[in-house]
Amino acid sequence: MITNKSRLxxxxxxxxxxxxxxGNAIAGGNPDNTISARVGFYNHHYYxxxxxxxxxxxxxxxxxxxxYPVDGWNHCHExxxxxAGEVFDNRATNIMIAFAAIIIITSCIFxxxxxxxxxxxxxxKPKTIDRALNLQKRFIKTTNALNSVNQEISEHxxxxxxxxxxxxxxxxxxxxxxxxxxxxxxxxNH
Length: 190
What we know:
single chain, 190 residues, mainly alpha, 2 domains, 7 helices, transmembrane helix, transmembrane
């Protein structure tokens, strides 16, 4: 059984992610995001509930179905959470949506054929998400980013207009307090 911890799966997974990012860039998206994460963002965190355009829902169904053998359902939403620190575009044009459709449909046909064959042969199976580990990794990544900001400020000072920085920092503090409130009940139980 190939598991998500095996060297082979990590290698293959990295190739899938790279191809996914290339496809997203060709379709007018941020080259640092995957199409899966972009689709997850639009379906779950950009549009109000019930207002998601049909093509984003359609893309999600195709991609989630393709990756079911290794990720279970909600591949796109989980991909967004794994890539949530990125900037997602909101300037999708009809031509870019058409490019995305061509890339998604074409690549998913081939990927699904491979993954479902491996699944039927019981070589792969849907992974179990370790939510605690995922959050821990994101907090480490966030801490590293904030350490870098602090180091840059220490090294270069702040001799420029800080208006936008202050707005972003205020938003960051709000997010911090919201997370702190969310985990307080958990801390009391442990």
